[in-house]
Design a protein that fits this description.
With 475 residues, this protein is α+β, with helices and mostly antiparallel strands. The protein is built from twelve helices and 19 strands. The termini are far apart.
């Protein structure tokens, strides 16, 4: 480990030049000074040991490369040209988990090599000691000219085309392979492990999307399509996405790796994470222009909220830092099994018919008393259950039985509609998301029936993604 800050600055100077186009004053003063006649964008990215990487299979150069690549990918997602970056480092103290001069030199060398390829100069940063190795990178990007605009999220219309540049699921396969076998996995799965250890920021492709008149929105896939696409089209837009993906569209290593594990390659690819592919919303009348690029069509924007994969609701979600407290291990990275109620005698289960698509995204956003404030919602059911819906009519009152997988189970009793004058009737009598265990019964009005098995209902006090167990007509 450097014995002084000056040692660290000397290491920086060995790897990173202090002059670059557009940098009027580089490292060494209180602030760097960059030429700023055009629009600038800024993004920051943390890279934390045992959250984003493990030293047992990341080399020092891998760590430096990926930390910068992940941050620079945000520039690609805006269609921005690289302008500069700042690096703040937290280095662990001396000891078995410390960082010596050889390690630091290798890490900076990996970062500097990518910095040079991207034309992204280091303009400043900071250094401190702490409990773990942490890299905090701030990247700056600019539009190509004053006339150019950067490409934000949240600009989508029904019928727009969804296009993808790059692979999905490849880095996920690499992560799991490395977790299971360490660096020995590199020989068996070379492209998957490279996708995880040394991702490529798609800055040229981002500029290409920016320059095409039909691009409405753009982002990079860092947490997986399942979590990132709702962010792309706008969480509060009320729109959804119909994905059309087939196994032949996936990288061969993705297909083979997940098939050998007994997993669904398509599901794992959509869950994905850290592929840093670019996904764009484009106007359908301009999609032929995009076909000339390396992009491919993977779906379209729908009027119905939620995500569907090949006609079926897709309820699983990608990576969330606050849902997991550490880097995902193989067993933790597998998607949770579909909820099922298992009686003590073990002779039966409750099948999941489909899922709720609602504007309620968490328990805190859901009303707590009866119909008050409860929204319309869609029941997106598996098409195989369509025959069971015969006889339902628009305007009918129907009962919906749901699996309350996100319910607060600390509540052991409840009164219907929060009316304490009514007798206690347990889970089946209230639609509050705060309920004991795990089933809820909702009486709603059927507003619309869409093919093959989609029902619009009101009011439904259930969180988006809640599994549906049964639907029955009242009376």
């Amino acid at each position: 480990m450097p014995t002084s800050e000056q040692d660290f600055l000397a290491a920086m100077d060995r790897h990173f030049p202090n002059q670059a186009e557009g940098v009027l004053l580089g490292r060494g003063d209180d602030c760097a000074v960059l030429q700023a006649e055009e629009r600038f964008c800024i993004s920051t990215d943390l890279f934390v040991e045992n959250i984003h990487f493990r030293r047992c299979y990341f080399t020092p150069a891998d760590i430096g490369h990926k930390a910068l690549a992940a941050a620079a990918s945000d520039l690609a997602a805006m269609g921005a040209a690289p302008a500069g970056f700042a690096l703040s480092l937290v280095l662990p103290p001396d000891g078995p988990d410390g960082v010596d001069d050889v390690f630091l030199d290798g890490m900076l060398a990996g970062m500097a090599a990518l910095s040079k390829r991207l034309g992204l100069p280091l303009v400043g940063g900071d250094l401190s000691r702490g409990p773990a190795l942490i890299l905090d990178i701030v990247v700056l990007g600019r539009a190509a000219s004053l006339e150019d605009w950067l490409v934000p999220r949240g600009r989508a219309d029904v019928g727009d085309t969804i296009m993808l540049t790059g692979e999905i699921g490849l880095a996920r396969a690499g992560l799991l392979a490395l977790e299971e076998s360490g660096r020995a996995a590199i020989e068996r799965w070379p492209e998957a492990t490279a996708a995880h250890l040394r991702p490529r920021p798609r800055i040229p492709e981002g500029s290409l999307f920016r320059d095409m008149r039909g691009t409405r929105s753009l982002m990079d896939v860092s947490d997986g399509l399942a979590r990132d696409i709702p962010r792309l089209i706008g969480l509060k837009s009320g729109l959804g996405v119909e994905l059309c993906l087939f196994e032949h569209m996936l990288h061969p290593e993705v297909r083979e790796f997940f098939t050998l594990r007994g997993d669904d390659p398509l599901e794992q690819a959509v869950l994905g994470g850290e592929d840093y592919a670019l996904v764009a919303v484009v106007r359908p009348e301009d999609e032929d222009e995009f076909r000339l690029t390396s992009s491919r069509i993977i779906g379209h924007v729908s009027a119905h909220p939620g995500l569907r994969l090949n006609g079926r609701p897709f309820a699983a979600q990608g990576f969330d830092h606050f849902a997991r407290g550490e880097a995902p291990r193989p067993e933790a990275a597998r998607p949770a099994a579909q909820p099922a109620a298992q009686p003590e005698d073990g002779n039966a289960t409750l099948a999941i018919l489909g899922y709720v698509r609602s504007s309620l995204t968490d328990r805190d956003s859901a009303p707590k008393s009866g119909d008050e404030g409860a929204p319309e919602a869609w029941l997106e059911l598996d098409a195989a259950y369509a025959p069971a819906l015969l006889g339902l009519e628009v305007g009918s009152r129907i009962l919906v039985l749901t699996w309350l997988h996100q319910g607060d189970r600390s509540t052991l009793q409840c009164h219907p509609r929060a009316d304490r004058a009514r007798p206690l009737r347990g889970v089946f009598a209230t639609r509050s998301p705060d309920r004991p265990n795990p089933l809820g019964l909702h009486e709603v009005t059927l507003l619309e029936i869409a093919e093959p098995a989609r029902l619009r209902v009101f009011p439904l006090e259930a969180i988006d993604g809640t599994p549906v167990v049964d639907v029955k007509k009242v009376g």
